[in-house]
Write a structure and sequence with these properties.
With about 300 residues, the chain is an alpha+beta fold. It is built from nine helices and 14 strands. The strands form three sheets. Strands 6, 7, 8, 9, 10, 11, 12, 13 and 14 form a nine-stranded antiparallel sheet that branches. Strands 1-2-3 form a three-stranded antiparallel sheet. A two-stranded antiparallel ribbon has the order 4-5. Helix 3 (about 25-40) packs across helix 4 (about 45-55) and helix 4 packs across helix 5. The two termini are about 25 Å apart.
């Protein structure tokens, strides 16, 4: 559902509001409205969601259910409508059943948080799996090649893949493989350093993510920046924001780092640029890495790309 909502500006806005204010009525209203649009437009997705949240499909009610939290059903039996925020839907059996599911979703969102709920749900590509990447070749495949990035990005060397025994401090526990690659262009400078850390379990990956996040937060040289949610959770920091930093060509550069937890994998991106494209490019790169990590865990060949 997070992937589905993230396809539109309205959906991303609703998710951003929920992440910032989990459980608030305004955030719930925004998510509810977008869920309604997606589920009403895709009965198959609604059925999949019902199966994930309940033991069986809800019975068809003989009377319209009471939809709480400002979802209003009005009109007579023949010309009734259902209003969800700014949306006006015809009152059909399918719509009523879908809204009943949305009520369950929102209750779980408030109790568990959006990220916990969506981990059990599927998207267009099938079930979202959480599985260790136990083969070195699979971990290496999460790293993109030059065809996955804009044409000006060239590889600055072969990808490097190491095992848990080779310099993994301070995030060694459960680490199976660490992989990295660097791509970019010289003038104006654009450099993307991309990292993948594959763990034997989701808890070990989450522990490593938190250690890296804490290390970023404790650095006096980095400042937290606004960043869209991706994977299970994500964060980003900018280096020395507001200060003028010059590279060896006397170009003024900006640098930032993003981190995302995706099941048993932690991905990191460090992006350096002499152009005014820091945050959008960092976001595109991090989303590509998060998507590729998920594709690998789903058993598919990673194919996500980044364009900016």
């Amino acid at each position: 559902m997070r992937s589905r909502l993230g396809r539109s500006d309205e959906g991303r806005g609703a998710l951003g509001l929920w992440d910032a204010e989990p459980g608030s009525e305004q955030a719930a209203e925004a998510v509810r409205a977008r869920l309604t649009v997606e589920l009403e437009g895709d009965p198959g997705l609604a059925e999949q969601l019902r199966a994930a949240l309940q033991h069986g499909p809800p019975p068809v009610p003989t009377h319209p259910p009471a939809i709480v939290q400002r979802v209003h059903i009005g009109g007579d039996a023949n010309r009734a409508t259902i209003n969800v925020g700014p949306l006006h839907l015809k009152k059909t059996t399918g719509v009523v059943a879908t809204l009943a599911v949305i009520g369950v979703v929102l209750a779980l969102l408030v109790t568990l948080g959006l990220r916990s709920v969506v981990q059990s749900l599927g998207d267009d590509e099938g079930e979202r799996k959480v599985a260790p990447l136990s083969e070195m070749a699979t971990v290496k495949s999460v790293l993109p090649d030059s065809d996955s990035l804009p044409a000006e990005f060239k590889s600055e060397g072969d990808p490097v893949v190491t095992t848990d025994e080779q310099g993994c401090q301070p995030v060694c526990k459960g680490l199976l493989f660490a992989a990295s690659t660097t791509m970019g262009r010289e003038r104006p400078q654009k450099t993307a350093a991309l990292y993948v850390m594959a763990y034997d379990s989701a808890p070990h990956a989450a522990q490593a993510f938190e250690m890296i996040r804490r290390e970023m937060a404790d650095s006096s040289e980095k400042t937290l920046i606004s960043f869209p949610s991706m994977g299970d959770t994500s964060t980003a920091y900018q280096f020395t924001p507001g200060n003028i930093v010059l590279n060896e060509d006397d170009e003024s550069i900006e640098e930032a780092e993003a981190e995302a937890l995706v099941g048993t994998v932690v991905v990191l991106v460090r992006y350096t640029t002499a152009l005014d494209d820091l945050e959008p490019s960092l976001t595109a790169l991090a989303r590509m890495m998060a998507d590729r990590a998920q594709q690998a865990q789903n058993g598919n060949s990673p194919s996500a790309t980044a364009s900016f």
